[in-house]
Amino acid sequence: MSATPLRRILIPLAATAAIGLALTGCTGDIAANDASNTDCADYGDYGTFKDNAEVTIGGTIQDDEADRLVESWKDFQACTGITIKYQGTKEFEAQIAVLAEGGKAPDIGIIPQPGLFNKLADAGFLKKAPKAVEANVDKFWSADWKGYGTAADGTFYSAPLMASVKGFIWYSPAEFKDKGYEIPKTLDELTTLTEKIAADGDHQPWCVGLGSGDATGWPGTDWVEDYVLRQAGPDVYDQWVKHEIPFNDPAIVKAFDAVGDIIKNPDFVNAGLGDVSSEISTEFGDAGLPILDGKCSLHHQASFYEGFWKKADESKVTVAPDGDVYAFLLPPVSADAGQAVTGGGELVGAFKSSDAITATLTYLSSDTWANNRVKLGGVISANKGLDPANAGSDILKQSVEILQDPDTTFRFDGSDLMPGAVGTDSFWKGIVSWVSGDDTKKTVDTIESSWPTS
N or C: at which end does the chain have fewer Cβ atoms within 10 angstroms? Predict the structure, then answer.
């Protein structure tokens, strides 16, 4: 699984229990093509390797997504002679630093979020990115994306891989057409639309689910992050996640209150699911499904939510502008403002050095890899050399175009950038307490007090 909230769904494991363990899990072995049956025109620059050249890669990507990942480098293996061994495991994040310290890390790691990248880079575990990789990133990615793979001292270590776009609002195109609702172009227009749906009296406009096991609350952090970025702008967003301004800064309070005007308002939620408190017990994967029954009109969730619609029943749910459901991006403050989006993705870093590792890293940072992987379905990349037509659905094509738009400001999911004591603990818990009745001041003050002092 990639470019999804996998890190949030999994129960964290203690790193201390990982001492002496090797990464195990899904290996996704797929035989490489014979070079004689493969068009190697796109792979000549990577060189030809003999003597059983092998590269190991570890990450959190598992199951069908791991199979597609392995498929994406099949031709590369055939043309270069490099054998790539991939192991995907949910323990990757908890184990990788211990493994690196013991010299047992894989050659390459697919790092699921910048917080972990920073820990590995600061500890000196990662190798500086080869020049060819940096050249690819300078060509194919924005400065924002390159920055997430760059350490505090300015050293570039890790190239981006896949991506997701957060902040989509899912809706029923048929309902919008029948009732004359229009896609809002500003946050004020979204508020007006919300009020109109509520006034029409058929149902409350929004359905919300914050449930996710031990990670319950994270969908609410996505709401707040989206509003901070749009209302306060990217500079304030960056200061917030770095704690250059406190968590209880007025800009953050304003975002909480704006989100609360929707998800804490009993007139606006929780359509088809219960009262406001039902948001906490409703699993995030189930929360949007009332749209299919006409019990809900709007649901806030990322591009990956496309895969959840088929949970409704065994029949196929069409995700398209004229289908059963589709999505528009949470709008900006003003119609003439450039689009700002939050999202997620992975970074690819090396723990060891060799010519075969350099070739593999260079391929994974190329437009060739991005197009090969996206053609296989289910994911996207922010790589500017990716042809949006290769994306497997309308919503994924829209996501690629958003990421490739030079006027789009991209920021990584804020809680993934914060220290774990905040981003995956007090922020999640604070959302639950806030929805349960705590006011904004108490919530942000409590989260601020949890921020590590060193």
Answer: C
